[in-house]
TrEMBL record, chains A, B, C, D:
<dbReference type="Pfam" id="PF03928">
    <property type="entry name" value="HbpS-like"/>
</dbReference>
<dbReference type="InterPro" id="IPR052517">
    <property type="entry name" value="GlcG_carb_metab_protein"/>
</dbReference>
<dbReference type="InterPro" id="IPR038084">
    <property type="entry name" value="PduO/GlcC-like_sf"/>
</dbReference>
<protein>
    <recommendedName>
        <fullName>Glcg protein</fullName>
    </recommendedName>
</protein>
<dbReference type="InterPro" id="IPR005624">
    <property type="entry name" value="PduO/GlcC-like"/>
</dbReference>
Length: 142, 142, 142, 142
């Protein structure tokens, strides 16, 4: 599997939203990007703020474009804020370097896409992301 | 219903994709925007080109921001190309003024969002959009 | 009077909206810019599409920045579309070169600002603009 | 009330400007945005600097797009400067994360828009905003 299918993308989103309800999180927004950083699927729950698409996308976009998930990006931003700022310049301001951006891999470890979740705390966003990806039979790197 | 719900947005997307298969169209990409032009849901079928999100969004965005669906935008562009070009400048280049951008209204005629469909001919995109919106129990203005 | 006052800007907007209701136009959006092209006041009537601020501003902005009202801009665009496109490049895409952009002058003929009206046909937008500016005791160049 | 009306927007602006005069603040600029972040009404008092529209809008825009008022945005910026910088990249540089951006809610707690006030200290801007929103019979979250 070189590229995530729409069927899998839907499974991931439904799994994440189900996990969010189970954890009693605030309304979530979830994007699934392909290996080129392009949107495959997105859903924003009722009650979520209108601007959440850009935040979800920014978490996933940086993950897939750098091959580095949100937690690693945040660590780098804490150490070298100017580096992540410069990355954002190069990427047109599309990167949100915090947890909730999660790489999606197949069973052989190949990256097949990335997920971005936003709406609750960054750590809760990431936890829900991992649960949904795992439930869809894929591997998550948060 | 002042704002389209995620449940309705999903129904619209599924209806449009079903219609696309029935019409034997090329793989479609479908976005549902809220009344402020913000993404509520999106799906891109397997086999569709990676850049289709922006085209779908551009069709729907102009529709909701101007309160004028794709066919009316195209007519205006045919008459006054410089006007639609100028509108696009004002909207940051986000408008695609062709059929496939469709306003979604409730039974009382209030706009509750907009749909953008891309992948086949613009007219086929618009036909599938109308079918999906109607199947979800809402009114379409193409 | 070198610069339009907020009191006069309010009078202009109220006069235009009153004229719009008298003419039975669609819901209007009206901006008043100062002599530097900066927003002094704006109102969008209930039922107008959400993106109307940018259209109103674009009509007024080109008027004041070029010292040329909407009708003259449109004539130029009809003759030399590439010229108005180039102007828009220079002005960051902020110009909408159609009627409804109207210069506001004091009794001695000095420009004190510009008005942008959008919502109905461009000609009706311009007619309402002139009526409101005149009712506020100022001169209009449409 | 799903969306703020022009009548309410005017009441809010007048209330804020009245409060500003009562507090003897510097000239204020006040924007009211709808739930999609689009301008509903704006006024800039005589004597205010020309660029105040963008500052007022930036305070209100971030509030409504993130569903998080100016004080909460400032707290986040103090803790994680790179996060708010990244959010701003995703939102095209339109966010001003300081007090004076205030969410407007109806009596049931639904967000119906946002207000941005600028001209004096951020805290004074926010105090005037809350006073004007409350005087218009709505709820404020600063």
């Amino acid at each position: 599997m070189a590229e995530i299918s729409l069927r899998k993308a839907r499974m991931i989103i439904r799994g994440i939203l189900a996990k969010g309800r189970e954890m009693e999180l605030k309304p979530l927004s979830v994007v699934v990007l392909d290996t080129g950083g392009h949107v495959k699927a997105f859903e924003r729950e009722d009650g979520a703020a209108p601007g959440r698409f850009a935040i979800a996308q920014g978490k996933a976009y940086g993950s897939v474009m750098l091959g580095m998930a949100g937690k690693a990006q945040m660590a780098r931003a804490e150490q070298q804020a100017y580096f992540m700022a410069a990355v954002n310049g190069a990427y047109g301001g599309q990167v949100i370097p915090v947890p909730g951006g999660v790489l999606v891999k197949d069973k052989r470890g190949n990256i097949v896409g990335a997920v971005g979740v936003t709406g609750d705390t960054s750590d809760n966003d990431a936890e829900a992301a991992v649960a949904g990806i795992t439930a869809a039979g894929l591997e998550a790197e948060a």
